[in-house]
Automatic annotation (TrEMBL):
InterPro entries: 3-OHacyl-CoA_DH, 3-OHacyl-CoA_DH_CS, 3-OHacyl-CoA_DH_NAD-bd, 3HC_DH_C, 6-PGluconate_DH-like_C_sf, 6PGD_dom2, NAD(P)-bd_dom_sf. SUPFAM superfamilies: 6-phosphogluconate dehydrogenase C-terminal domain-like (SSF48179), NAD(P)-binding Rossmann-fold domains (SSF51735). Keywords: Oxidoreductase. This is 3-hydroxyacyl-CoA dehydrogenase family protein. The keyword RNA-binding does not apply.
């Protein structure tokens, strides 16, 4: 399947992630059909959120264009029929398999068989999602990070029936959007990033629940160790830079001791079942006043822009080094 890039992209679902993706694509002058399938209050607030994201991007120097000009790239609608002009559709609705299947059915009713359909799922295997499509070969995962308009992260994931050639084309287009994409050639639950991150979360819960450290201690350790170098080089490069043999020696002793639990940790289970949702309602691993929650969100937003600038500062130099010395495949 050859991608026909006519610059119009559909986004289904205008929650926090869908609006963030819309802002990221609008910054790159992509024309967007933004579909609000539920008509919820969250969907109704979508234009306001996207405008805020674009205002911040202009203020931080990510674009020289005014938010009003960039907003003209986006057509808001509740009608799936408006997707007919799209070459690519990105599904961003809730992580519910039945809801996603219904969305895909509605998309396929209005777009041609040549149109790419992707999902921003972070948990459901692509092979499961594509199974009920009329044309499963045009379906891929496209897993974004929040905030999508500052993060260079994007995973392109093949399902069992997704040709690698289509994924490679999406990969190249993602680079045009300013991303540093990862191509996941074989479907696996959680893809790459979430499998690595959730292994870290599991061990973090093990350490806290068994009294080795507090929540704050674990956060501090992650921030001041891995948080200092992961954005620079990733896991495997870091072992090369700091002495591969030392890691080999430690793995033999440490791997058998790491947590391998298969159930949800009690610490997060208790909070979630008590309706805790972090800064969004003030109850999480930490407690937040409304003022503290807003300040954390604002500061995280500022940090994301600073990380974007720092990544760009070194990106070209690191790419030159990598191109001259490709890693073993």
């Amino acid at each position: 399947m050859k991608i026909n890039d006519n610059k119009v992209i559909g986004i289904i679902g205008l929650g926090l992630m869908g609006t963030s993706i819309a802002a990221a694509l609008a910054l790159k002058d992509q024309k967007i059909i933004a579909v609000a399938p539920m008509g919820s209050d969250l969907d109704k607030e979508a234009p306001k959120r996207i405008r805020h994201f674009l205002e911040k991007c202009q203020g931080e120097g990510l674009t020289g264009k005014a938010p009003e000009e960039l907003m003209e790239n986006i057509h808001f609608t509740t009608d799936y029929a408006d997707l007919k002009s799209c070459w690519l559709v990105i599904e961003c609705v809730v992580e519910d398999l039945d809801i996603k299947r219904e969305v895909f059915k509605k998309i396929e009713q209005v777009v041609s068989h040549e149109v790419m359909i992707t999902s921003n799922t972070s948990a459901i295997p692509i092979s499961i999602l594509q199974a009920d499509l009329e044309v499963p070969e045009r379906f891929y995962g496209m897993h974004w990070a929040e905030p999508a308009y500052t993060s260079p992260f994007l995973e392109i994931i093949c399902g069992d029936r997704s040709p690698i050639e289509g994924a490679e084309q999406l990969y190249e287009i993602a680079k045009q959007w300013g991303k540093e994409p990862t191509l996941v050639r074989k479907d696996v639950r959680g893809f790459i990033t979430n499998r690595i991150m959730y292994a870290m979360y599991r061990e973090a819960f093990h350490l806290v629940e068994n009294g080795y450290a507090t929540v704050a201690d674990v956060d501090r350790a992650c921030k001041n160790a891995g948080g200092q170098w992961m954005a620079f080089c990733g896991l495997f490069r870091y072992m090369d830079l700091t002495g591969l043999k030392a890691y080999h020696a430690v793995m033999g002793d440490l791997f058998p001791e790491l947590s391998n639990r298969k159930s949800v940790p009690k610490l997060i289970d208790d909070i979630a079942k008590a309706n805790g949702n972090g800064v969004f309602n003030g109850k999480g691993f930490y407690d937040y006043t409304p003022e503290e929650a807003e300040k954390w969100k604002e500061t995280f937003e500022k940090f994301a822009f600073d990380m974007n600038r720092l990544s760009k500062k070194y990106a070209a130099e690191l790419e030159d080094i990598s191109n001259s010395n490709n890693p073993k495949q």
